[in-house]
Amino acid sequence: MRPNNRPAHQTRPINITRHYTRYAEGSVLVEFGETKVLCNATVEESVPRFLKGQQQGWITAEYGMLPRATHSRSQREAAKGKQSGRTMEIQRLIARSLRAVVDLTALGERTITLDCDVIQADGGTRTAAITGACVALHDALSKLVADGVLKQHPMKALVAAISVGIVAGEAVCDLEYVEDSNAETDMNVVMLEDGRLVEVQGTAEGEPFSHTELLTLLDLAKQGIQQLISAQRQALNLA
Amino acid sequence: MRPNNRPAHQTRPINITRHYTRYAEGSVLVEFGETKVLCNATVEESVPRFLKGQQQGWITAEYGMLPRATHSRSQREAAKGKQSGRTMEIQRLIARSLRAVVDLTALGERTITLDCDVIQADGGTRTAAITGACVALHDALSKLVADGVLKQHPMKALVAAISVGIVAGEAVCDLEYVEDSNAETDMNVVMLEDGRLVEVQGTAEGEPFSHTELLTLLDLAKQGIQQLISAQRQALNLA
Amino acid sequence: MRPNNRPAHQTRPINITRHYTRYAEGSVLVEFGETKVLCNATVEESVPRFLKGQQQGWITAEYGMLPRATHSRSQREAAKGKQSGRTMEIQRLIARSLRAVVDLTALGERTITLDCDVIQADGGTRTAAITGACVALHDALSKLVADGVLKQHPMKALVAAISVGIVAGEAVCDLEYVEDSNAETDMNVVMLEDGRLVEVQGTAEGEPFSHTELLTLLDLAKQGIQQLISAQRQALNLA
Amino acid sequence: MRPNNRPAHQTRPINITRHYTRYAEGSVLVEFGETKVLCNATVEESVPRFLKGQQQGWITAEYGMLPRATHSRSQREAAKGKQSGRTMEIQRLIARSLRAVVDLTALGERTITLDCDVIQADGGTRTAAITGACVALHDALSKLVADGVLKQHPMKALVAAISVGIVAGEAVCDLEYVEDSNAETDMNVVMLEDGRLVEVQGTAEGEPFSHTELLTLLDLAKQGIQQLISAQRQALNLA
Amino acid sequence: MRPNNRPAHQTRPINITRHYTRYAEGSVLVEFGETKVLCNATVEESVPRFLKGQQQGWITAEYGMLPRATHSRSQREAAKGKQSGRTMEIQRLIARSLRAVVDLTALGERTITLDCDVIQADGGTRTAAITGACVALHDALSKLVADGVLKQHPMKALVAAISVGIVAGEAVCDLEYVEDSNAETDMNVVMLEDGRLVEVQGTAEGEPFSHTELLTLLDLAKQGIQQLISAQRQALNLA
Amino acid sequence: MRPNNRPAHQTRPINITRHYTRYAEGSVLVEFGETKVLCNATVEESVPRFLKGQQQGWITAEYGMLPRATHSRSQREAAKGKQSGRTMEIQRLIARSLRAVVDLTALGERTITLDCDVIQADGGTRTAAITGACVALHDALSKLVADGVLKQHPMKALVAAISVGIVAGEAVCDLEYVEDSNAETDMNVVMLEDGRLVEVQGTAEGEPFSHTELLTLLDLAKQGIQQLISAQRQALNLA
């Protein structure tokens, strides 16, 4: 049995709170059960050097975890003087996932940075971050439209992410920490509402996994993504 | 006139929320108006090397600000690879202030780290951090007593901190950002309930200040501290 | 058409040269066409701190690219003072892939480090690195057996990796640089000979990809892996 | 009794040697007893980026301590690869103190950097540094006037700094190391000749201090500052 | 006796392989016996800031050693986050040696970087690097001439480097690792074909060395350099 | 003509002041004309890890230059976060030079660190540093003997260093900055009183130099070293 008797295909309770802080152009607190990530979107009127003069914008992301977001305290990356490989991997994933749903040419020569900071961690922080950052980004882009800076909204589709995995031989959706740390296979899936894939990252933590297991996990992910995008739509008051 | 017609001696609305996150031994969200700081206390069963074998404990602190806590985004210190001088100055101040009210011998050979992370900044983040961290530390110590690890509570008194300053020629208490950035003199005061001082840091940003102005500011600080300690007592359900 | 009229399912010429340098316990130069990676395996009689006393070994990896392995020179990471996110991501992937095929308990309390240094890069450096490192690791483990340190060889299976992707609308196997930089979808697959998966990482660089496309790519990867494992077997003189 | 029977209100012997090195625009060795700090002022014809085009100058400071300035050797910050929090705190204090007495608009778009390097440390290095740097800065500004670069001297007043504290229950002025390391309360005061304050930093190292004690310390500081400014005037041949 | 009965004045077998990698403007694998260094020359159309507008070019060098080039693994400098003093010393020496034989004005405002990466180390890596880099640089310059970018070849002479030393009381040429680590005196000599010196670096590892010993070593070096420059000429098909 | 009509073979005025600071076990200010270097020797009762248990001591050195030791200000290495290649090269040279004259076995398991900090620089800082550090080291060792820690003085000979070079076609001794920056050839020689060599580092800055020129420079160096060692003897009151 999963904790709280949660069915295998069921996500944890999802909460998306917009306008969580005052100053960012988009600010979302996303909760996947006890996992809580604050996603702030900042618009800046410039692009990185490699894009100068190319008449397109850029989406980037940074990820951090408060030292005591977890059961035991981890060292502050600012104090260590460098970001871990895990942090860099995650922030690259968030940025790629969001760029996949934005028309960068329509954005014009500006950069939107998504700061995803984990307030509390109970597994699935990267998938929550992508899911919340999508809403924060949507708000920041809507503001550019409302302010007359952009003529049309450059977001092409909503995107969400979910972790799926095999725990004690069973395929389950949206793993919490106690499941994640015991999973034999762990897979993060970034998907659009129409089921098309932006990113698939599956890892055998124990035994390698079969083609059939992969298909089962993808199917579970698809179900979870539907629940997440539905929560995003509701938060954004989209039809 | 101050923003919102606030009287010169009045603090902003103070909110102290305990148990804000789940895992830390003490976890407090402190709000001074729009300034919001999360203060997490972590207990570890060891002391820094310079205290090994001396049969006393240690209190330390780290301070951070989320990149978009402020009106414009600041670079993430973890990405820059080092903490700024301002950050180091503040975290040293927080730690000194808290050590002043704890009987380190009664704490035994353990370390309590206070992580103070600014979620939203509107002036006075360091004074809010000290005021909130005192409550988080109290909770962490109470837990050690409740768990039977300590016989008596090692906190000797509550401590709080307030900023006072001279803005447009007038002495005011608990400056918000728009005041702080225009202050001629800026002073942070860390004080006990009985009016004794733990730390005084006064800085002339424009003209030097007179002895008389210093006394006026100290008096304002004393009034503000009463309000803060009263809020701490209420949050902690102390008489 | 692909460069050199290469069929979609065909890998580039694969060369695996063992004993490429003199001092490492395993030393392999692996070539996927013009991509050349030197994989050196080092055995050390200790384990990282988090494994001390747990009676198991560890496999780790480091990845680097000579500054002029590519068409234009990139800055040396040692001179910059830090490894890029891409480098860290790759070396974590190499290490996870190899740990999946080694019985770490049978290895005993020792660490094997795989240094994968790219001499020349024409796409697919991480997949070549995994494929070559597997052979270098096999040699290092065989030496431990031959020296009487280990009773049985702790490698459970051969593992190889291939990149597959969609280029100009067509699914192709083992992308070279000119293909990789124009791919709409890019997927790295780490697989055992029996088709079970160790790692799948698929990324939409342009349009999201469909479930069907994913299946096509996985099938292509499987064919490529067969060719790679066959080359590994031949190099190792295994039946 | 204090070391050498020094009365409570008395500073150590103060020596200020101008033109200590040849190349700097201002170069002063300041001695507070056995504490010796070399203060070099450098004029550069540019301002930091945040001041570009604002038709004003800037004063900044850096602080360092030779590894064997103290009783036991401390690690060289250049070798450690970063400056400590203490170093940053001190150099920020020195710079603020000097900016308070210079008309930055009259200085024009140029930067003066004060390098304060401790040759020998016996307590009070930051107060000696401020006191000596004021003289070095005065010399550098005088040179700009003498060279016809500036029409009038931009220094508005002399500034000096002194440490005061409570040691063994007694308030004393200009603490040397053996006193400083045993002080219950420690306060650094930066003051003009007319008694107005630029900076006050008081810290309870042991018990908190009372309002009355604060006043006693400020009074002692005022007496010490008179002695220091008198020494500055003499060194500068000012009336 | 030396290893392999090598006579005192004899270098190890020298091999110089041009066009070792595909993309660099000059790419040479140089072998001094078991020491193998890959030297890649990169041409860039800019100069460092301190040379901007001075109508001359620049030659620079970087040196690295693969972690397992040696008998035991050394830590990767990119992972440590800094280059060692030894690395910096060597790359500065390589660059100075090559600048001595190039007419920097004839090169025009461009920079050539020599990346010297040690694939396998058995003593004399810095002398092999200089000797190989000279050939790689010659090729890169020839390409600039062939492409019509330069009218005449800016290399004024070939340069090579050799290590000589006193081992077990005997002066020997081109020390391999086992000799180098036991040498009483160790000297690296960078010389032109006509015997003129570019650099001499002699170090007493044990006893100081006499003037006479210095002369003997210089004479041995001269003989070794003849063999090296002859190998360079042959590789470059120069008369 | 040289500055101040100094003859080619003549060093600048040499001053060696012992006991320059109070706390170091050896403390020497050495002056070669306007070049002034403070050399402090610190004794510590431990050895680096690679020497643990080998019953011998170690001599190491660190070098730094105050930011305004020179005509224009250079950036502080502690602020940059790393030491330059030049700094590392020099401190390695100082340490090697001193180790050559100490019986490390007689020193026992302790480390002596020589901190050489340049107060003012007018050429020849590394040679002045070696010359002064030798005296500071002698004092530190004498103190160990006087304190009864060592039975006999472990210094086997005095060592000094001088720069020689070819300036405007003429060989000269002890170059000052204006000569050094125009030298065609520059050579640093570390020598014992008996003329035996510890280190020779000759570099062609412009044209390569001939064997004959090398001999002329060595002869000049020998004369300079006599003057330096005579000054060391006088400072140490040795016969």
From TrEMBL, chains A, B, C, D, E, F:
The reaction(s) this protein catalyses: tRNA(n+1) + phosphate = tRNA(n) + a ribonucleoside 5'-diphosphate
Q: From the UniProt record, report the name of the gene that encodes this protein.
A: rph
Family, per the entry?
A: Belongs to the RNase PH family.
What does the UniProt record say this protein does? Phosphorolytic 3'-5' exoribonuclease that plays an important role in tRNA 3'-end maturation. Removes nucleotide residues following the 3'-CCA terminus of tRNAs; can also add nucleotides to the ends of RNA molecules by using nucleoside diphosphates as substrates, but this may not be physiologically important. Probably plays a role in initiation of 16S rRNA degradation (leading to ribosome degradation) during starvation.
Does tRNA processing show up as a keyword for this record? yes
Q: What is this protein called?
A: Ribonuclease PH
What assembly does the database describe for this protein?
A: Homohexameric ring arranged as a trimer of dimers.
One BP annotation, GO: rRNA catabolic process
* InterPro entries linked: ExoRNase_PH_dom1, ExoRNase_PH_dom2, ExoRNase_PH_dom2_sf, PNPase/RNase_PH_dom_sf, Ribosomal_Su5_D2-typ_SF, RNase_PH, RNase_PH_bac-type, RNase_PH_CS
- Where, in this chain's numbering, is phosphate bound? R86, G124, T125, R126
To which species is this protein native?
Muribacter muris
